[in-house]
Amino acid sequence: MDDIQLLAERFEAHRGHLRAVAYRILGSVSEADDAVQEAWIRLSGSDTDEIGNLGGWLTTVVGRVSLNMLRSRRTRREESLDAVYVPEPIVDRADGTDPEHEALLADSVGLALLVVLETLSPAERLAFVLHDMFAVPFEEIARIVDRSPEAARQLASRARRRVRAQETVPDSDRGTQREVVEAFLVAARAGDFDRLVCVLHPDAVLRADLGPVEGSREVRGAEAIARQALTFSRLDLTTELALINGAVGVVTRRDGEPFSVAGFTVRAGRIVAMDILADPERLSLLDLTPVD
Predict the structure, then answer these.
(1) What CATH number has the domain spanning 174-283?
(2) Which residue among 58, 73, 173, 241 is least enclosed by CB atoms within 10 Å?
(3) What dotted CATH number matches 3-80+90-164?
């Protein structure tokens, strides 16, 4: 076996971890794969004899590449601070997660968490992901963001406060999740406003990303969300239960074409958050075959 084959095997042993890091930073599987590929290109052109900890080196490279991609993407979007951006969801059949997605979805990386991470600055997001999710020391994070270790610590702290202020982690029992989501769907189809309000937490939030043409919206409060649900229930849509980033959610279609992907965050038997991607262009890029 030549040196490049040996190096490729060593790299492959870290690929799952690197994809998980990049997906949390970028919120996109395709962009995460691009970041991992860039890490391989840099590794294959480096003097590996000087790399003592290959896993740590690769994690740092993926973090730096992902940070640059995040900054570039934010500049291209020129988004306002009030815009809602729902990241690329990972969709599985309602009866189980694809093994290939398990590593990407560990540590409750639900759609609601990714939506909140989108509100952070690129440096805050990277510091939070690397330190709080992967235990990367602040000294290493500081080199990536070109700041002092204390400044890196403050970045992660600010991000942590933002994340904790939101309900981003669903209850782990998928059976309960399914019961609540199905109750919501039944009430919406029946036009039952009161039952909709009962299944929603009083302070629930609905965030919808409709794309660059229609824009985005955020609705807060059980009654306001129930009214919005009744409006959508009048559309000629079919609904299918699915796992959206590991939690029970819904894929809707109109005339057989994807209309939306909705992630639900259920806590204590009520829906506390709904995150909906309804951007036609981005939906067309998703692999919804598992649901079919």
Answers:
(1) 3.10.450.50
(2) 173
(3) 1.20.140
